[in-house]
Amino acid sequence: MLIQGFNTIFSWVSTGLLVFTVVAFINAAIHREDAYRAAGKNTKPFWLIILGLAAVVMGLFPILSILPLIGLVATIVYTVDVRPALKEVSGRGPGRRGSSSDGPYGPFRR
């Protein structure tokens, strides 16, 4: 009974981590290639390969083995380091100035 409960918990955790990795992969695929260069990060194909392999490994192996943990570390690095830099370069980050209604000389007023 207790082992079945642990298996259920581990399956939910594994599913959550797989979803986390797939979302990071989709986010990496959305950004343009030149944004990676402008942010000073590795190339877009590099991150797509790393995150794709991480998703495959998390789907095939149990969470307590070493390969899914390496994939999780790669996903966390992308999410914490690369993604904010890409958002900053793309103009969607926290350093963004103005709003979407701003013109070249300031906000549009009616």
From TrEMBL:
The keyword GTP-binding does not apply. Keywords: Membrane, Transmembrane, Transmembrane helix. Residues 97-110 have a biased composition (Low complexity). Coiled coil: none annotated. The chain crosses the membrane at residues 6-26, 47-80. Residues 88-110 are annotated as: Disordered. This is DUF2516 family protein. The lineage of its organism: Bacteria, Bacillati, Actinomycetota, Actinomycetes, Kitasatosporales.
